[in-house]
């Protein structure tokens, strides 16, 4: 009997010692413990995470992560993302970090007026999304994202709806989750009052964003935005072609300061030199100031404008006034 008890005590002590050894930091005290980057994909179970940490030399065995996660009651709450973990941390510390989702966050700023393609390039350059998969969703797969604000989409493109702002992403997100983050920000910033303003003007939200995107691409001067919007509405009301250079460049898929006469001949519904009315959709992703300008344009008598050397525009009421301004500022 005594021998059996002694044996049981020995086994418990040995198991305890083994468990303690297993969850202790891999790095010995005082040794260098440079953080190791580990990316946990969405849906990875605790066993898979354990294999990743063991493979990175952060824990002694994959089962340690599973055992600790179960012990702490977080086995089904370990979050995906990019983590910077250290061999000097214990398995318990690492599991708690994963459960809290303390992942590495990468800052990306998307300027007002960026197109979907420019956003895809920025995300790909930061290693936060695969460019082609992102474009497949944002240019062709927009209808898979079911939101009231997307009810007016006329194609699968989300151009105009990826709100320009500063974002923090962790690596390991799939492209759909990245798109959802942009759409969440859009829904939060483009409030019901702006949507109601669109309806009051007889416009859908999609049409309002189309006007706002042209405003965004036509001027970088804040106080000109409502005036540009006013000119756009004035020309629409008179059945005039908008003749906005930025729409031609969008049709060409190019970004440059000068439009040539040959460019104006491009066959595209986005070419507002060839076709009257609004283009089929936004030509960029406008910021809040341009959306507000499109919703509340200035009441102006102007029908034309031309860019001046100082970056501002000269506005004209008549074609003859406009041609005089063109000769004056484009010598």
Summarize the structure.
The chain is mainly alpha-helical.
How many beta strands in the DSSP annotation? 6
- Please state the overall shape, judged from the principal axes of the Cα atoms: elongated
CA radius of gyration is 29 Å
The domain tally reads 3
What is the number of helices? 13
Low-confidence stretches: 6-22
- Strands ordered across the widest β-sheet: 1-2
Structural class by helix and strand composition: mainly alpha
Oligomer: single chain
Q: Estimate the mean pLDDT confidence.
A: 88
Q: Can you summarize the main beta sheet? A: 2 strands, antiparallel
Q: Secondary-structure element sequence?
A: HEHHEHEHHEHHHHHHEEH
Give the distance, in angstroms, between the N- and C-terminal Cα atoms.
108 Å
What is the helical fraction, as a range of percent? 40-55%
- β-strand percent reads 5-15%
Give an account of the 3D structure:
By secondary structure, the chain is mainly alpha-helical. The protein has 3 domains: 22-100, Dna Ligase, domain 1, CATH 3.30.1490; 106-189, no CATH class; 192-300, no CATH class. It has 13 helices and 6 strands. It has helices at residues 2-23, 46-55, 62-72, 91-100, 116-125, 131-140, 175-189, 192-200, 205-218, 225-237, 245-252, 288-295, 319-329, and strands at 36-40, 81-85, 106-109, 166-169, 304-307, 313-316. The strands form 3 sheets. Strands 1-2 form a two-stranded antiparallel sheet. It has a two-stranded antiparallel sheet with strand order 3-4. β5 and β6 (313-316) form a beta hairpin. α2 (46-55) crosses α3, α5 (116-125) packs antiparallel against α6 (131-140) and α6 packs across α7 (175-189). The termini are far apart.
């Amino acid at each position: 009997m005594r021998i059996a008890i002694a044996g049981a005590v020995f086994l418990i002590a040995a198991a305890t010692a083994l468990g303690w050894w297993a969850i202790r930091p891999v790095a010995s005290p005082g040794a260098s413990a440079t953080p190791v980057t580990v990316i946990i994909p969405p849906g990875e179970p605790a066993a898979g995470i354990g294999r990743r940490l063991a493979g990175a030399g952060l824990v002694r065995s994959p089962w340690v992560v599973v055992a600790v996660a179960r012990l702490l009651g977080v086995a089904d709450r370990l979050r995906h993302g990019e983590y910077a973990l250290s061999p000097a941390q214990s398995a318990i510390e690492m599991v708690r970090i994963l459960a809290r989702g303390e992942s590495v966050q990468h800052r990306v700023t998307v300027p007002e007026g960026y197109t979907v393609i420019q956003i895809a390039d920025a995300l790909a350059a930061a290693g936060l999304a695969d460019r082609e998969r992102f474009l497949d969703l944002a240019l062709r797969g927009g209808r898979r994202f079911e939101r009231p604000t997307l009810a007016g989409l006329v194609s699968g493109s989300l151009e105009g709806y990826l709100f320009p702002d500063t974002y923090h992403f962790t690596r390991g997100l799939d492209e759909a989750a990245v798109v959802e983050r942009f759409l969440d920000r859009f829904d939060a910033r483009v409030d019901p009052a702006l949507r109601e303003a669109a309806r009051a003007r007889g416009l859908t939200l999609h049409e309002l964003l189309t006007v706002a995107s042209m405003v965004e691409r036509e001027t970088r001067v804040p106080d000109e935005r409502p005036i540009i919007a006013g000119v756009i509405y004035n020309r629409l009301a008179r059945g005039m072609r908008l003749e906005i250079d930025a729409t031609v460049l969008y049709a060409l898929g190019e970004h440059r300061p000068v439009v040539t006469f040959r460019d104006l001949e491009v066959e595209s519904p986005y070419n507002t030199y060839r076709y009257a009315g609004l283009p089929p959709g936004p030509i960029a992703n406008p910021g809040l100031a341009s959306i507000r300008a499109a919703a509340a344009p200035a009441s102006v008598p102007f029908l034309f404008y031309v860019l001046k050397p100082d970056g501002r525009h000269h506005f004209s009421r008549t074609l003859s006034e406009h041609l005089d301004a063109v000769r004056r500022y484009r010598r």
